[in-house]
Amino acid sequence: MTLDPILHSSLLIQIHTLAACLAFVLGPFVILRRRRDRTHRALGYAWVSAMAVTALTALGIFELRLIGPFSPIHGLSVFVAVMLWRAIRAIRSGKVVDHGRIMVQIYIGSMGIAGLFTLLPGRRMHAVLLDGYGWPGFWVAAGVFAFGAIYLWSAQPRSDPREAAHFPLFKPRSNR
Prior knowledge:
The chain is mostly helical and 176 residues long. The protein has seven helices and no strands. The protein has helices spanning 4-7, 11-32, 38-58, 72-92, 96-118, 124-129, 134-155. The longest helix has 23 residues, at 96-118. The radius of gyration is 17 Å and the shape is globular.
């Protein structure tokens, strides 16, 4: 592992990478936290801030030019910003289940799927994390992502407790 590909990049890419890594690490702590208390709220604010910085800085990165100067990551950045706003609106209006579902979708979609694309051989993050492992390293990372995504998806709150029976990793909260 070497940080040289990041350290020799523009400041915008360095900020983007730092924010994305922070969001990647904080996400599971916020999502899997059982009690929705002050710690959850503080970590949630930090996670939303990191995601917002990641999305905003991605709008200024034009290395993959698939549609004029733009790439699908620019569309994902706008989508993430809209979904963050929807998740915040949901929790402020008391829709806890909707809030949780949106946040898990944002995490899996942006940190997982988009993050996997950064690990493809030839990309900067592949050189940072998987240099020397090539395609086998990518496929191992994809498998770890798939397991993590299934676990996080199964751990999200559901509006109907009977729905949780289909997800053995999910343990419904007691109403007592």
